[in-house]
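Hi support team,

I've been running sequence recovery on a batch of backbones for a student project. Most finish fine, but this one hangs at about 90% for roughly twenty minutes before it completes. I'm not sure whether the input is malformed or the queue is just slow. I've pasted the structure tokens below so you can try to reproduce it. Let me know if you need the job ID as well.

Thanks,
M.K.
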């Protein structure tokens, strides 16, 4: 958005319209002690000088237009069809606010209704809310839901293969509430089901698993659900929406809640946001789900009408009855996700998932053919991310490749100190065979004189 400066005449005109004689009169109600009148600012710049300065600052950043990135870990580089930017940039969507007045917000409400419908079809669940901040906040909301609906159950089981940042958000959300959070260990990159069976009991409110998990590994969700069900605990599945084009959806393996990060659905990386979290449930939990739900009804003339319904926020009902204080529906991001799913359709989503599988396995084969590299868990299936053990510390590998304009992945020692030589690599459909060859060649050159023995732990 271009900046158009105001002249002194513009300021005078606005003050006259407001009814203030000058700027001091405009802020007269602010106590003098709270006013800041002196700022240590550099001299004013002309507009051309200012543009040059801002461009110089922006040039310090490097975007994915200049870098070849194999970083994933919860934020993924996918192709965004041009129609998404075209439609989402329309003024009536771009400036839309929370649709409190249904009669004046039919377009926004219809978008959210369509979003809910497509998310339900993608996950195989019955009910979706109208979106949350991001995947991490969706995990936190799922815990609030499970604990609030089962007040005598004060324990949560969460896999240590769930995204570390999601687990940190979970701990932050539940701090001080007297809730026991038990982390389940992993075996061969997936949740240890023997530990799950031993620890789930009649005081467990929910079990939270992620598939594909943080390591990209596909969890045995069907078997996990069978182990959870007798205890009465809720089964919460955190999923990558793109993976559902190829993998069994949560609704088919008995999940009570299915949630995740919607960024892969047509939302660019954008330096980390804004993103959009989705949260779905089975029909029996429709009165418990947090946030907003948009429903379809009929108006006085018998025509189709959309409205907010079953609102469980503290702004709409008594505070003590609210299931959530979540204060956003991220409707612009939900619009992008809706357009993305509508453009691709069922066949397109499946093709996209298969392409992610193909490219990531192609990259894994190329990397593990190099001396000193090996898959961390060679027998465990993965989606579009995988962990390789490097012949030198992963941070060293990443540092060397970054000098060549390649972001090789995420060194797992950032989250797991014992994984010094493990590298999390992500490959999506935007990576070509030539990109994978470039990565493999760079890895070979960066490590060819520094081989260490591989330990398959």
């Amino acid at each position: 958005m271009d900046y158009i400066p105001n002249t002194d005449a513009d300021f005078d005109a606005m003050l006259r319209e407001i009814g203030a004689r000058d700027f001091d009169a405009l802020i007269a109600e602010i106590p003098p002690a709270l006013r800041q009148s002196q700022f240590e600012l550099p001299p004013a710049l002309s507009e051309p000088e200012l543009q040059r300065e801002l461009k110089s600052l922006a040039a310090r950043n490097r975007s994915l237009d200049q870098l070849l990135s194999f970083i994933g870990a919860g934020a993924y580089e996918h192709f965004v069809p041009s129609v998404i930017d075209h439609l989402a940039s329309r003024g009536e969507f771009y400036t839309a606010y929370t649709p409190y007045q249904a009669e004046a917000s039919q377009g926004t409400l219809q978008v959210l209704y369509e979003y809910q419908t497509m998310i339900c079809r993608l996950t195989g669940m019955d009910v979706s809310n109208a979106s949350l901040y991001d995947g991490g906040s969706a995990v936190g909301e799922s815990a609030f839901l499970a604990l609030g609906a089962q007040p005598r159950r004060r324990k949560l089981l969460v896999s240590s293969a769930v995204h570390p940042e999601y687990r940190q958000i979970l701990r932050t959300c539940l701090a001080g509430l007297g809730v026991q959070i038990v982390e389940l260990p992993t075996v061969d990159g997936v949740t240890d089901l023997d530990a799950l069976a031993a620890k789930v009991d009649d005081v467990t409110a929910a079990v939270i698993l992620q598939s594909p998990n943080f390591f990209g590994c596909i969890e045995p969700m069907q078997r996990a659900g069978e182990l959870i069900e007798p205890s009465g605990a809720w089964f919460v599945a955190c999923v990558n929406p793109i993976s559902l084009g190829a993998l069994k959806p949560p609704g088919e393996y008995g999940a009570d809640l299915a949630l995740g990060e919607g960024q892969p659905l047509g939302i660019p990386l954008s330096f980390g946001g804004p993103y959009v979290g989705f949260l779905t449930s089975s029909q029996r939990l429709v009165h418990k789900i947090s946030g907003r739900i948009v429903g379809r009804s009929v108006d006085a003339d018998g025509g189709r009408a959309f409205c907010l319904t079953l609102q469980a926020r503290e702004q709409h009902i008594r505070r003590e009855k609210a299931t959530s204080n979540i204060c956003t529906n991220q409707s612009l991001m939900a619009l992008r996700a809706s357009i993305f799913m509508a453009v691709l359709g069922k066949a397109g989503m499946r093709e996209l998932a298969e392409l992610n599988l193909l490219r990531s396995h192609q990259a894994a084969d190329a990397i593990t053919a190099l001396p000193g590299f090996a898959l961390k868990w060679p027998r465990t299936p993965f989606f579009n991310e995988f962990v390789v053990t490097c012949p030198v510390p992963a941070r060293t590998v990443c540092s060397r490749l970054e000098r060549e304009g390649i972001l090789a992945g995420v060194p797992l020692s950032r989250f797991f100190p014992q994984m010094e030589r493990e590298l999390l690599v992500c490959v999506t459909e935007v990576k070509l065979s030539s990109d994978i060859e470039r990565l493999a060649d760079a890895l070979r050159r960066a490590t060819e004189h520094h081989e260490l023995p591989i330990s398959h732990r």
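--
Follow-up from support: It reproduced on our side and the slowdown came from queue contention, not your input. The chain has 13 helices and 17 strands. No action needed from you.
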